Amino acid sequence: MAEVNHSTVSEFVLLGLCDTWELQIFFFLLLLVLYLIIVLGNIFIVILVITDSHLHSPMYFLLANLSFVDLWLSSVTTPKMITDLLKENKTISFGGCMCQILFVHFVGGGEMVLLVAMAYDRYVAICKPLHYVAIMSQRKCIWLVMISWTIGFVHSVSQLAVIVELPFCGPRVINSFFCDIPLVIELACINSHSLGILMNSDSGVLAMTCFVLLLISYTYILLTVRHHSKHGASKALSTCTAHIMVVVLFFGPCIFIYVWPLNITSVDKFLAVFYSVITPLLNPAIYTFRNKEMKVSLRKIKSQYRSLKWNL
Question: Nearest 5°: phi and psi at 56?
Fold first, then answer.
């Protein structure tokens, strides 16, 4: 066994989403449209936050970073999935597979911590409004973003360091549309059950820790909101509702895949599509159409566009 290493497997075969050609064409068109919306929507939010001075606040700074992360998360897997739908042989090189694992867990881990930072921002804004400017300074916001990226990087590199050293000698078929740790570990030429539990626990602990912190934060916020005026409580609840929707949409699939003991391939594959395509698609819509300041900024852009068009 010591003589066997990953060099005996130069590529993996991805089974993709479906088998029939008609369904592949349908999913190709659907996912292509959704991915274009993801790219344009998240880029638009980043540009909007940068260019509109009314959105230069900690909440929107963190929101712009979330949009950037969602764009990156979707781009790690979705373009490969879309192009593979038109291919008969869906393969990925060993190096490409390792890169997918690295970036999926890097960006995914970073997004979990970033969502906690956004919950902390709402906690300070609602529970300590008089000290908000002092606590959520520009320096603090930058540090929160840097911490999220650092934790995501350490999480992904620590897991990849184990995966790369595993011996792979066949089989090389992955029943999904991208490489992920539980699926790749199953292909190792060793008894990988204990290792799989350990690696899943790593991702599961990060996901559950962030999720519990979010539950505590929003519970405390909702309890505090009860003592506010009707108008203030309504505004706070509207903002928190949008955040909670994003948290549920992102953490639900992750917790099911990495914490749930049952391994149901069809369900895991659907949930993987959900957090890599649907969640990055819904985030811009949730924050844009449920946020008063964002809607005002959008109306301003529309009026400027109409004025420019009229002058031309």
Answer: -85, 70
How many other C-beta atoms are found inside a 10 Å radius of the C-beta of residue 15? Answer: 15
- 3-class secondary-structure state, position 92: strand
pLDDT band at 2 (very low <50, low <70, confident <90, very high): very low
- Residue 294 exposed, middle or buried by CB count within 10 Å (0-12, 13-18, 19+): buried
Q: Report phi then psi at 192, rounded to 5.
A: -100, 10
Q: Which residue has the higher pLDDT, 49 or 226?
A: 49
CA atoms within 13 A on the CB side of 81: 27
Q: At what angle do helices 58-84 and 138-164 cross, to 10 degrees?
A: 30
Question: Residue 228's pLDDT band (boundaries 50, 70, 90)?
Answer: low
Helices 292-311 and 279-289 cross at an angle (nearest 10°) of 80
Residue 75: its pLDDT value, please?
Answer: 92
∠ CA 68-113-110, rounded to 5°: 45
Partners of 11 in the beta sheet?
93
Helix (H, G, I), strand (E, B) or coil at 168: strand
End-to-end CA distance of the chain: 73
What is the C-alpha separation between 242 and 249, in angstroms, rounded? Answer: 11
| Residues near 189 by beta carbon (within 8 Å), at least 6 away in sequence | 1, 4, 166, 167, 168, 169, 170
DSSP calls for 260-301:
-S---HHHHHHHHHIIIIIHHHHHHHHHHHT-HHHHHHHHHH
The CA distance from 140 to 119, in Å, is 14
Helices (H), the chain: 21-51, 58-84, 94-127, 132-135, 138-164, 181-185, 193-225, 230-258, 265-273, 279-289, 292-311
